[in-house]
């Protein structure tokens, strides 16, 4: 619900880690394209959030592109999105992060086509400790990343609040807070930087999960997460933050808003009923890494194959899972009573099945798979 | 496939021929020897014989000229091919292609023509090139079946697909005949499986390498990812190196800053100690000065007391002088009285007696005066001695004070030196301990290196042993393999095929025979059955049965041998038996295998041994490599042992345990800091030594001063002793007393002189004496008056001296008071108190120590500055590396690679499964008799049965299409049992069936020449029916066997019938033969 409190002096959307142009090499090409494209599509929902809440500004805290020199496809598409918005009174601030640092030749350099394609209300943070007046009573301080690695604490570099300065002060930097692995080399951010610098809110980016750092801080320091998850195991990803800063020095309110389309899940099925149950779930907008670990007799194996095909889809039919990464290396055929499956088959097929069943040694796995194919093809042919 | 046109020039006996074929039955007829077979030969050459083949010489034109064949054929409705061959020298080939039989484009030339043609035909003939290719016209089962020569038409029955160079014919036939397979489900399954196999494997069974191959696609993906991962890993390593360098430098910088800070603190401490030391010394100096001042004032006060005593003396003297003056006044008065009396007496005494009394009195006074003079002289001398003694006493006192002060300073310096000596000893011991620990650390490090080296040496030795074992086992296996002389799997397969052929051949000659002998006379009969031993025939009337041969020996008459089967079968069996004897038996003998099954087992064992051999060789190589990797480390054992021994020797036997104890008491990781600690201990020792040297110097100076002071004191004491000799009291007291005595003596002398002078006058006359007395009285009066004047002068002088002394005393007292003894004492007390309150340094510091400490601080600061620069450089380098971005990308690429590997495994397993399935299905099918043989045998059998009007039940073809047997009345017979004509007919039916199944054209070159007209009529119909499906080219000298009389062409032009499906061509009008004369040439 949009914030209606009249005491609110400043409203803004805080987002980060779009990673436009990111590739997903672990997926098949069609899925890769879909996932890469989703990173651009989700921005419509982020910008929609800004419009619904009538925010004063949108702060984008770095890693907006996956590399400092993305292909034109991505920067042109982003510029087109901005140009379609026509927000003349709602500035957008783009902060270079460690994935897309500000360099002489990067996408943020002034000579780059991206900069030229941006509307005037979209600003790139290109100065250290850049100060931007958001309103008469609010000011933004921001510092860009200029390399992919760095040890300097950009937040602690922001200017301190001077005595008598009663404006709302918002910080915007990109980096890892001290509790993150490898923070020393990835633009470390002190957990107390917001308070030390006299900020009312510190908008940061890098981690793909929505986090308050630390949760009980007097001044909110927030990772808004990546608007679309980028990998399995990323919990709390897929959000943007809508921030309401009130007058009289009260602590800002932060609304965590879901914007992602895709939910990434790791699933393991160890029995046919589990697999059947999975098939009943609505997994249309899910990226599922499914590991099938079971040994089934021929008929159940066939059923499992049908379900997997149903989940994965074919060239002619969408699967029930939006994007499926299937590991079936532990799906095995139980050949204990396989001969019963060929009781009514022609003699030549029965004998072939028997021979495959008795195959041992290195060829045994292929023989079991061949046995299943023989079963399936015989069954399909007999229908 | 069907033929369209054929043009032949200068080809054997044909100078020129040009003809066009219809799609159905083409009857090419002509007289014998007109060149019909040459045309068939030209077609075979055009399709199969490379222009460079050595067999081209057999094609040479009888009239000279270069043999040329141009053959046009179609493989589909829109695929037309034209092959042109020139068999001259060097010759040429070209294959052209067209979609409409009008516009042709070159498709291939030279050897590529043959490669492409054989691929098109799929007749089981390999493309040219490679080893083992047959010379001459390439042959295969299908080339014989479809283009067979006239001579040996029935030879096809003895052939099979087994000898084909590749499997293309089998595959083509298999595919064509699968439609006739017995079980449609089997066919469907096989088709599916084979379809999947074809996606991934070549017909030869290799993995496809084209871009559409699923293996290639996944492998390329994995390789691409691996390449990117390798790059990313390099970047990650670079990041890690940069990070480690930065961390190390930052750590060093932190340490250097701490060291600098410590050095600064130490400087502060030393400076404070130095300030304290200096403050103490200064305070001590000031206290000494104050004490000296107090002493000086006290001496001045003492001097004042002396002066006061002198004043008192002067006062007494003055009083004495006043008394004397008064006495002089009284004396004057008395003298005046005396003078009056003398004057009176003069007047009275002018007598002798008085004069004598006066001389006696004068001698007494002279003696008294002399005594006074002597006494005064003696007292003056004693007074001088006493005064000198007083000076000496003062000097001695000063000297003693000085000596005492110096004694104290020396004692302080000695205490300081003792403290510094202890400190230096402690620092020295500390340094020695640190040095010992350094050595211990180095020794431990050397021990560790030695341990590593020994471990490496042991590993290397173990690896070498393992390598030698593996080499020995490999050698053993190699010897076994060499000793076994085992054939290869291909050779075994070839032997198996040979054995099968031999078994079939033996079966053909082993159809069974029975001989019945009816002797006309008495005969002794012996018989040898199937090559067995001779045995006597007991019952000559009983029939003799055998499988292959019966040898009847009619003693002294004849020996009859009866064999079953045709001569060709015998020849074939004999030839195969010979081959078997030459090829199979030696192999079995050499390997010790009783049969081919056992041989197969031997081969498998040999392959297993070869596999083991490779494993052992690989293990040996791996062990040797690993050993080589340890060699360098291991080689250092001796050097390191010597190093350890040297270190241990240098440390001594007793030192080591102490150091171990010392090391045990230290916290863990002391070895890392021991070098720095030792350097610090060394610095401390040097500082202590400097301080000690400074202290010793100071002590020496003080000792020298003390010695000089003691000498001065001794000299003063000696002088004092010398000056006090003869004094019976203290010099001051003695001097005072002497001065008093001297004064008394002077008084006595003056009295004595006065008395003498009085007496001198008294000796003369009484008158004179009186006169003299008068004169004396006058003189005495004058003297008295002079004495009075003198006394007054003395009194005045004494008074003045007293006043002056008092004035001096006042001045000096003023001075002393001005010097302020109390203030000086107070100041000295305050200084002493201040000195007592001053903080005492733990140990005295020196400027040298401060200088050394400051230098250390400057050095530490310099190091910190340098490190700060290095850190900035490292930070710059760090910003150039990929950092977390690289790590993220690397993680995603590794996940992708793992996924791709899973996928690769899945693909390989799946396609391997399909391949195994297809193979298993075929194996099972082939073992059952194979659908090819069954399907074709069924067709052939039916037609043959129809041809022979049910004389033969069926034909049995094996899996390789070899004609196994002809079923006659339920009994299997070899086709060799058939007549030559029937064999030709059977072979022709087989050809027809094969061509029909393949949809291929068929050339029959007078293959039915020995066929009876009744059966020829059957073929007439059969060929016409078949011509609806395939193209048949019949070359015959008997056109009436194939054409109705009204179908024989009358003119030169070919005649077409049956809607164009039958064409008759009179070759007399088509073939231009080489002129007979040329032929003879």
Alpha-beta content class of chain A = alpha/beta
Q: Largest sheet of chain A, described in full?
A: 6 strands, mixed
Task: Please work out how many helical segments of chain A DSSP would assign.
Answer: 8
At CATH's second level, what is the architecture of the largest domain in chain A?
4-Layer Sandwich
Overall shape of chain B: rod-shaped
Using the coordinates shown, work out and report the CATH topology of the domain at 2-206 and 929-1080 in chain B: Rossmann fold
Side-by-side strand order of the widest sheet of chain A = 4-3-2-1-13-14
CATH homolog superfamily of the largest domain in chain A: Metallo-dependent phosphatases
Mean pLDDT of chain B: 81
Relative strand content of chain B? 5-15%
Number of strands of chain B: 21
Radius of gyration of chain A: 27 Å
Topology readout:
The complex is a heterodimer of chains A (383) and B (1081).
Chain A (H helix, E strand, L loop, with lengths): L7 E8 L13 H24 L4 E4 L11 H14 L6 E3 L18 H5 L4 E3 L5 E6 L2 E5 L25 E7 L1 E2 L10 E2 L3 H4 L4 E5 L5 E2 L8 E3 L15 E8 L6 E6 L4 E7 L2 H9 L2 E14 L1 H15 L8 E13 L13 H11 L6 H19 L1
Parallel strand pairs in A: 1-2, 2-3, 3-4, 6-7, 7-10, 8-9, 10-12, 15-16, 16-17
Antiparallel strand pairs in A: 1-13, 5-6, 11-12, 13-14
Helix pairs in contact in A: 5-6, 7-8
Chain B lengths: L1 E10 L2 E7 L4 E5 L6 H13 L19 E9 L2 E8 L5 E7 L6 E5 L1 H11 L19 H7 L20 H10 L6 H17 L13 H135 L4 H132 L4 H21 L3 E3 L9 E5 L5 E2 L7 E3 L2 E6 L3 E6 L3 H25 L4 H40 L1 H15 L3 H10 L5 H55 L6 H32 L3 H54 L1 H17 L9 H32 L4 H45 L3 H17 L6 E4 L5 E6 L2 E3 L6 H19 L3 E4 L7 H14 L5 E5 L18 E3 L4 E5 L5 E2 L2 H5 L1
Parallel strand pairs in B: 3-18, 3-20, 17-18
Antiparallel strand pairs in B: 1-2, 1-4, 2-21, 4-5, 5-6, 6-7, 8-11, 9-10, 9-12, 12-13, 14-15, 15-16, 19-20
Helix pairs in contact in B: 5-18, 6-15, 6-16, 6-17, 6-18, 7-10, 7-11, 7-12, 7-13, 7-14, 7-15, 8-9, 8-10, 13-17, 14-15, 19-20
